[in-house]
Specification:
Nucleotidyltransferase, domain 5, single chain, alpha/beta, 7-stranded mixed β-sheet, 496 residues, 19 helices, Rossmann fold, 2 domains
Length: 496
């Protein structure tokens, strides 16, 4: 920033005038603590200029590109400080996330010292304070009215804006005039084309048309599928002069891999990051290795950082990634062995199978190798609980298992306790993400050839794996059991 700009920002009166005209300066001065890496990319400044022009914004970009921080929380704070809107609506697919956005905004309005010094405390709720973090973070804030009279309300998909009004102390009855849409697509809700079409129609008919005529719309997206809501939104408004569309990915346009990151916060290799960061005392200003990001999750990287999303029906793991190994080539010793179980108790042949997967683990030079030793699918009468218990007990002693992991669904918790009564080491696990996301966590391990399948003992698992797309109709009992057998090695405890 130029010396003159810094001088102007140092004086309250000129600062307030300058920041009203320039969203860029507002962000730099009032949100300096939120900018974990102070050197912004050119695409950030392009977004700031769009805000200054009062345009509706469609922005898709790579993960960690500060979309929500800058075009969500900061934009709304600017709008409130300068009374540019009267009724702000935050809409996410899940209303709970929208309430969390409300909380983050309220926190800025009530606790950001620079905002408080220049504009007063714009969020102040008598019955609860923002210091009550435990409550606030769990429940979020459904709606609130700022001390200068602006209403902020959270919505989930399906909650229409029709009929929503706010009595403003200066302007009387007003309709929503600022709308933030944040990440309406996820891996689960993009599987159904009919649902996508219905949601898009809902946005146009029950959300956009229920706003004030001159209201501002800001749509922020991470890319999940090629045929998601984001694509429909972009195609609908990309030629509209009242809209500006940004596609800001780490190397440039969608699918580009130029090897030159557009934001200096990122470098390509871990070696580069190590060389740069050893001279940076402030960890918040350290650069991040894209090589490390790739290693975390391959398809997630190409989807979220390069904009090469999955298409409907696309599988995650290719057959060539399922390396088979003969029994004679197994390691002489494993660091530990785990069993993963995906419960399903019923004698009906049409119901889900009970999946069981045994995995041996070897950690060598910080690389975690996984050897899938056996995969069993129990169906029909074989799923009677006593029989399943006997199968687990037999496998436990056969392989010298350290720990059994059983998912807490379909009677899994009760089953786990029954195994504990047999003096087996059992942990009950709960899924916090969908099956597709859990599998993709290990995609990098498949790509780097860290996972092996014992020949003749894992064929059914491989078949399920190479056909798994995340759709509801997928047969996935063994896939899920495999993921649980991989899980938790960092906190592994061994039964002696």
């Amino acid at each position: 920033m130029q010396d003159l700009e810094l001088q102007l920002l140092s004086k309250k009166n000129t600062r307030i005038v300058l920041c009203e005209r320039s969203f860029k300066h507002f962000v730099i001065y009032y949100f300096y603590e939120s900018l974990r890496f102070p050197k912004l990319a050119e695409y950030h400044f392009e977004r700031f200029r769009a805000v200054d022009q009062g345009l509706n914004i469609y922005c898709e970009g790579h993960r960690e590109s500060a979309k929500t921080t800058l075009l969500g929380i900061a934009y709304e704070a600017w709008t409130i400080c300068y009374k540019k809107a009267r009724f702000i609506c935050n809409l996410c697919y899940d209303a709970e996330k929208a309430k969390w956005l409300n909380f983050m905004l309220a926190n800025m309005l009530g606790n950001n010292q620079r905002i408080v010094e220049d504009f007063g405390r714009l969020y102040a709720k008598k019955q609860r304070t923002l210091n009550d973090d435990d409550y606030m973070l769990k429940s979020g804030i459904g709606e609130f009215i700022t001390t200068n009279g602006i209403k902020v309300k959270a919505f989930g998909m399906g909650q229409a804006l029709r009929g929503e009004i706010h009595y403003h102390h200066e302007y009387g009855i007003v309709r929503p005039d600022f709308l933030l849409l944040d990440d309406l697509d996820n891996s689960k809700n993009t599987k159904n084309k009919t649902l996508i079409a219905d949601d898009f129609a809902f946005l146009q008919q029950e959300v956009f048309w229920c706003m004030d005529t001159n209201g501002i719309k800001v749509c922020l997206w991470n890319v999940v599928r090629q045929d998601g809501r984001n694509v429909r939104m972009k195609n609908e408004y990309k030629k509209n002069p009242r809209w500006i569309c940004f596609s800001n990915f780490i190397y440039g346009e969608a699918g580009t891999e130029s090897w030159t990151p557009l934001w200096s916060r990122y470098v390509n290799t871990e070696k580069e990051a190590e060389e740069v960061n050893k001279y940076i005392p402030n960890k918040d200003e350290c650069v991040v290795s894209l090589q490390a990001k790739r290693a975390e999750e391959w398809s997630g990287f190409i989807q979220n950082w390069l904009w090469i999303p999955m298409s409907a029906g696309q599988t995650v793991i290719e057959l060539k990634r399922c390396q088979k190994i003969k029994k004679a080539d197994l390691p002489e010793k494993f660091d530990y062995i785990q069993i993963g179980g995906d419960p399903a108790f019923s004698t009906k042949t049409s119901s889900d199978s009970f999946g069981i997967v045994v995995t041996g683990h070897v950690i060598k030079e910080d690389i975690h190798y996984k050897y899938i030793l056996e995969a069993i699918k129990l169906q029909g009468e074989d799923k009677l609980q006593e029989h399943v218990e006997e199968v687990f007990e037999s496998l436990y002693h056969k392989y010298g298992v350290s720990l059994i992991k059983v998912e807490n669904n379909n009677g899994g918790a009760l089953f786990a306790r029954a195994l504990q009564k047999r003096h087996l080491a059992v942990e009950i696990v709960s899924a916090t993400r969908d099956k597709l996301s859990r599998l993709k966590e290990y995609e990098g391990d498949f790509m780097r050839e860290y996972i092996f399948f014992l020949e003749d003992m894992t064929e059914e698992l491989i078949n399920q794996l190479i056909n798994f797309t995340g759709e509801d109709w997928n047969e996935d009992d063994l896939v899920d059991a495999m993921v649980w057998s991989f899980d938790g090695y960092k906190t592994m405890w061994i039964v002696l």
